[in-house]
Amino acid sequence: MDFEPPFQENYKTLLKNKSDKLGDENGDRQQQSQLMLIEHCELPLIDLSHLKIRGSSVARAKCKQDIVEAAGKWGFFQIVNHGVPTETLESMKHEQTKLFRLPFQKKAELSFLNLPSPSSSSPTKSYRWANPQATCLKQLPWSEAFHIPLASISRMKGNENFRVTMETYGMALANLAASIAVILAEGLGVKGTDYFEENCMSSTCFLRMNRYPLCPLASQVFGLMPHTDTDFLTVLCQDKVGGLQLMEGGRWVSVNPNPNALLVNIGDLFEAWSNGVYKSVKHRVMASQEVERFSMAFFYCPFNHTSIESPLKPALYRSFSFEEYTVQVHRDVQATGDKVGLSRFLIQ
Ligand SMILES: O=C(O)CCC(=O)C(=O)O
Ligand SMILES: [Fe+2]
C-alpha cells in the first residue's frame, strides 16, 4: 500500500521502547485505568432548523439557549439541519479519501497541491504525519493530515473538482460558524456585534483533513495527542468509526460518533473572547488496530492582525493578536512539546 506513511520504518527506535506505552506498569497507573474504563457520552444534539425566521420565536430562543449552555458546560455540541448540503459533504469526503490514497511520496512532496510554503505564523508544511520531534510514544500521533489555509486554495494545482468542492465547503462552513458565533456572543449579552463578520471570513479559515490509519500498536500511541484548538470555533465532520474523546470533569469520555451530525467545539480564542464563559476543552483521538478513520476539521479563525479582547470586564486575559497567539503556541510546542496556550495570557 504505497499510500501509507512509513510509521514503523521511521520510528523504529521509539516503537521498540515498549516501557513507553500509554500507561503500563512503568507508566502512570491512573492513566492506565482511565484508558480502560472510558465512559461514552452523548453530547447535546441541537437541531438548527429551529433557528429559521419562519419558525416559532419560542423554539428559536430555546435553540439559541441550548447552544449557549452546551458551549459553557461541554465546550462541544452536535448539530443537525445545519444547512450544509449533503452533496457538498459527500463530495468532500470522496475527495478526501482520494487525496489520502495518493502515494506517500507524492503527498510528502513540498510542492504537492502548490500550497504555500511555511510562514512565520504557520511554519509547518501542509502535509503532516506522525511527529518528527517525538521523543516518546505519547508524542507520536498515528495519523496523517493536510492543513489547508482556505486563502490559498485558488493556487491549488491539479484537480479542479477538489478545489471547487473545497471552496464551496469552506464558504458554507464559514457562514455556519459565523451564525453560531453571533448566537454565542448574544449569549454573553453582546448584542448586534459585527466583530466576527469583520474579522473572520472563509479566507481567514483553515481546513484540516485527518486520516487515522490502522495502528498495530494502538495501546501505545494516540491517533492525535490531547490538545485544544487554536481558533474561535471548530466544526468537525467525522465518519462512523469513533475514537474522539474529550475531557469532562477531569476525566476522558468517548464521544459516540453520529455521522449525520456535525460536531462544533469552542477553541482557545472564544474562551478568551468570552472571558472564560465558553470552554476550549481538551480532546484527543485514540488509535485503532481494526478500523481506519477519517475526519475533517474546519477552523474558524480571524485575520492574523485581529485583536482578541473580551467585551466582558474585568478581562481575565490581556488582549493579543491572533498572530501573537499562534507564534507563541509554535514556540512553546518547539521548546516543550506542549502548547501551553491561554494560560500564558492570563492577567495575574
Ligand atoms: O479527528 C477528530 O475527531 C478530531 C480532530 C481534531 O481534533 C483536530 O483536527 O484538531
Ligand atoms: Fe482538535
From TrEMBL:
In terms of InterPro entries, this protein maps to:
DIOX_N, IPNS-like_FE2OG_OXY, IPNS-like_sf, Iron_ascorbate_oxido_reductase, Oxoglu/Fe-dep_dioxygenase_dom
Record-annotated Fe2OG dioxygenase domain positions: 201-302
Q: Which PANTHER family does this entry report, sorted A to Z? A: 2-OXOGLUTARATE (2OG) AND FE(II)-DEPENDENT OXYGENASE SUPERFAMILY PROTEIN-RELATED (PTHR47990)
From what superkingdom does this record's organism come?
A: Eukaryota
Which keywords does this chain's UniProt record carry? Iron, Metal-binding, Oxidoreductase
**Taxonomy of the source species:** Eukaryota, Viridiplantae, Streptophyta, Embryophyta, Tracheophyta
User: Which GO molecular function annotation, any one, does this entry have?
Assistant: metal ion binding
Which family does the record assign? Belongs to the iron/ascorbate-dependent oxidoreductase family.
Enumerate the SUPFAM superfamilies for this protein: Clavaminate synthase-like
Designated name of the protein = Gibberellin 2-beta-dioxygenase 8-like isoform X1
